[in-house]
Structure formats: C-alpha cells, structure tokens
C-alpha cells in the first residue's frame, strides 16, 4: 500500500459543460481506482448546480478524491441550464489560467495532500498545459469528442485558406452549397463521403471573427504542446482519423468505450461509484418504466445537454412519435426550447397515454443498455454516440451543432448504425424514420451493424484489449511521477 501523501496526484479539469464533465468524471474515477489521488475541478457555477441537483453530498468526495472550484469569468447566475457556449468558451480561454495556476499552487501547499504530479485537462481547456508546465508536471489533454470530429476541426484552416469559409452570405446555408463534396486528399483522415455540411458547424459562419470558430481553432492547434492526447474511442472504429491524428500530435491513447473501460476497473458498488456528475436531477422512474416493455420495443429520445429547438420543432417531433405507433421514452430538458418552456399539445398527451413517458433527465447509459430500447433518436454528441454503439443500439440522427454533424455522417455512411432524420423537422419524416428503424430492412441492417460494433468495443476494453492496454501505457509513460513535462 502507498501512503496517502505519496500517491500520484492527478488534477482533472473538464470544460464546464455536461458533455465534457461526464467523460472526465469517468476518467477521474478510473485514475482514482488505479491509485491516484484525484482533484476534480468544477467551475463555481457548475459546483452550485451539482449541489442543487444531487445535494451537498455530491461534492463531499471521499478519501483520495476531492472537488475544487475555479471561477468561469462570467457574470454570477444560478440558472439551471448550460451556459451560452460562445460566452463560456471565450471566458474560459481568456480568464481561467491564473485561477487554475493558483489552485495548483494551493494544492501543493495543502497539508495532508500529496503534491500534484500531473494534470489531465480537457483539450478545449488547453491553458491547463501552461499551468502544468509552470509547475513542472506533465499534462495530458482529453479530447472528449470523436477522432473524426478532431480532424474535422483541423481542416478549418484549409477551408479558410481556400476561401470556402467564411460563407459569402447566409443564403449558402440553404441553397445547396453545404452539400459540396469534400473528398480526400484535402480531407486527410476523413471519410470519402464528407460534404461541407458534415464538418463541424462553426465553419459555416459568415463572420471570420466568430467566437466559436476562433476558439476551437486556437484550442485544437495547441494540442501538440501536450505530453499526450487521450480519446474516448477505440481504434477499429476510427482508424483513418486516428492515424491522421498520430501523424501530427504527441502520443495518442485511445481508451474507449469509456463506459466499458470503467466497468473493467470498478463497479458502482465501489466507493468511487457513488460519485456522480449529472448537473440535472435524474428521473429514476425511467428504468422502472422500461422494465414493463417488450425487448427492443421502445424509441428513446434524448437531444443531449446543450441542444435547443423551437416549440414548433418540438411539436413536430411529438406528433412523429405519436403517429409511429411505438412506445417511447422522451427526455425533455427544462431548457430544451429556446427562450421558453416546452409546451406540448394536450392532444398529443391524450394520443400517447400509456405508451409514452416524458422525463426531464435520466441515466442515459443505463437506459441505452436496457433490453427494451430498440432505437435512439439522438443529437449525435460523442458521449451519446459511444454509449449507443457500446449498447448495440442503432441511431436516428438529428445533429444540432459542433462536430455532431460529423458524428452523424460517420454513423450513417461509415459505421452503418444510423439514419438521418433531416434538418427540417416534419412529423411525417420522423414517423417514417422511426418505423423504418424499428421494423424495416434498413433498420434490421442497422441493428446487425450495431451489434458488431458493440462486440468490437467490448473486446477493446476487456483484459488484453487495446484500450485497456493503452490505459496502462498512459499511466506508465505519461501520468505517473517522474515523467517531466516537455
């Protein structure tokens, strides 16, 4: 046994949005079970949300696992919603470094804590590299999205140089320009099926000064300063994109599917299993409701933690679900509708009584693994995509922004597990896609492919599997003490 004050000490720093906090928390718990003392850094805003969602015990930590906070630089707020992405990203990039640097210094001065030996920062919180180098410890960046998404962002400079972006006017968003093919070799490491619309949405702007465009270019182009790059994926799924990343970056360690990997390292019964990261209160009735349904009979609908829509789009989805004839579990976040509360027609609730359940939030990974779920209508965020692949559940894809478009294209054109809903939501299209996915020939093929990918993902994280071996190599080669920052 290693004395508490001699354990390696990892400081984990996620971007303060649910889709980034969730995988970083899984990785932090894996590190803790591998013998690390862990300090998990939330922003003060998310710290308060976590307490409201799960109570004070949610941030109490346990022996060798503690929480810390830094300010995000935005005006004080207690809203129960994800902050505006552009404002949040700009603020973290420009204000958080000194606060994080001071936190690392304070941790090293805290009696009873082992000194900080490494930093694991979100790839889009790359100021973590600067703070770690000042401290003289290694910094691994965790790219929490897909490898194909990363390479999509790395092509932004090419699109700017070629004059494809910024767009000349907003008409190019609707006149077919986005369907322009972008084939290899320009799209290095990417699918041969890529169109301009399949690259991350920030490149579609008409403004060269767009905050998110410049933020993400700044962050991904600093990745090569890290000591290592970690991804929640497995090699068989994204080999060409990973090959392209490895050609331009420090050592790249694929450790996914992260949900499967975590299960190999610890169980929910372990002390660390009690630490949760959901910023919304989960409705545990969802799993009990699914228990009463037939296998593969339920359509699960969840648009993630950031996606917003108009109430008209919400109503079109509602009637598509009502008319498809299948049972459904639909997650409707409090902030799902832009600038307003979600309002569903009373007629919809009457028409679906007894075969639909509406919830505000859920334990998505557990829901997807439930045998009752037959298809997942998703925004194609990477956590959702990986959890769906790991569970062998095919997807109906309605991407919203960022690299979700890229994930959707790969799910449909490369991996064979998805089908596009279409950007202009119409109830007839939603109904038709659900019927085809649940019972048509295309749906059967999607289920077959999903089962194959599920098996490959499981193998990667089993003893001797590449992802589990990569985790051990990451620890030995980068994160354990004695590895000096370059």
UniProtKB/TrEMBL annotation:
Name of a matching Pfam family: Glyco_transf_N
Record has Glycosyltransferase as a keyword: yes
Record-annotated Glycosyltransferase N-terminal domain positions: 11-135
Domain of life: Eukaryota
Family matches, as InterPro entries: Glyco_transf_N, UDP_glucos_trans, UDP_glycos_trans_CS
EC numbers, comma separated: 2.4.1.-
Keywords from the named record: Glycosyltransferase, Transferase
GO molecular function, one term: quercetin 3-O-glucosyltransferase activity
Family: Belongs to the UDP-glycosyltransferase family.
PANTHER family with a match to the protein in the record: GLUCOSYL/GLUCURONOSYL TRANSFERASES, GLYCOSYLTRANSFERASE
Name of the protein: Glycosyltransferase
Organism encoding this protein: Oryza meyeriana var. granulata
């Amino acid at each position: 046994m290693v004395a508490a004050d001699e354990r390696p000490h990892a400081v984990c720093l996620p971007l303060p949005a649910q889709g980034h906090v969730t995988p970083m928390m899984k990785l932090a718990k894996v590190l803790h079970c591998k013998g690390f003392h862990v300090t998990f850094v939330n922003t003060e805003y998310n710290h308060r949300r976590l307490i409201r969602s799960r109570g004070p015990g949610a941030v109490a930590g346990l022996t060798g696992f503690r929480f810390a906070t830094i300010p995000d630089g935005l005006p004080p707020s207690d809203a129960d919603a994800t902050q505006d992405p552009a404002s949040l990203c700009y603020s973290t990039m420009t204000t958080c470094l000194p606060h994080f640097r001071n936190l690392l210094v304070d941790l090293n001065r805290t009696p009873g804590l082992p000194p900080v030996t490494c930093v694991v920062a979100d790839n889009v919180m790359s100021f973590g590299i600067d703070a770690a180098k000042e401290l003289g410890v290694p910094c691994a960046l965790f790219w929490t999205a897909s490898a194909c998404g990363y390479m999509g962002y790395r092509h932004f400079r090419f699109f700017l140089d070629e004059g494809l972006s910024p767009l000349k006017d907003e008409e190019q968003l609707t006149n077919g320009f986005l369907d322009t093919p972008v084939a290899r070799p320009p799209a290095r490491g990417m699918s041969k099926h890529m169109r301009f619309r399949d690259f991350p949405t920030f490149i579609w702007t008409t403004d060269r000064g767009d905050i998110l465009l410049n933020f993400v270019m700044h962050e991904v182009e600093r990745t090569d300063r890290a000591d290592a790059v970690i991804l929640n994926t497995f090699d068989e799924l994204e080999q060409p994109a990973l090959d392209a990343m490895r050609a331009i970056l420090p050592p790249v360690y694929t450790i996914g599917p992260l949900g499967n990997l975590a299960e190999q390292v610890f169980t929910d019964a372990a002390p660390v299993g009690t630490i949760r990261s959901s910023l919304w209160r989960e409705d545990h009735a969802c799993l009990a409701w699914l228990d009463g349904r037939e296998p593969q009979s339920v359509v699960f609908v969840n648009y993630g933690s950031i996606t917003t829509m108009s109430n008209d789009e919400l109503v079109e989805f509602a009637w598509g679900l009502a008319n498809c004839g299948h049972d459904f579990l639909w997650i409707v976040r409090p902030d799902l509708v832009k600038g307003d509360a979600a309002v569903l027609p009373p007629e919809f609730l009457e028409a679906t009584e007894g075969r639909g359940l509406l919830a505000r939030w859920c334990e998505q990974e557990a829901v997807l693994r439930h045998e009752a779920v037959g298809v997942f209508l998703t925004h194609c965020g990477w956590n959702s995509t990986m959890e769906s692949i790991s569970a062998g559940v095919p997807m109906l894809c309605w991407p919203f922004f960022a690299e979700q478009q890229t994930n959707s294209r790969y799910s449909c054109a490369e991996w064979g597990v998805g089908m596009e809903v279409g950007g202009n939501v119409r109830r007839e299209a939603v109904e038709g896609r659900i019927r085809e996915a649940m019972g048509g020939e295309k749906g059967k093929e999607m289920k077959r492919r999903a089962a194959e990918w599920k098996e490959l993902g499981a193998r990667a994280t089993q003893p001797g599997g590449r992802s589990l071996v990569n985790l051990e190599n990451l620890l030995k080669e980068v994160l354990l003490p004695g590895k000096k920052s370059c």
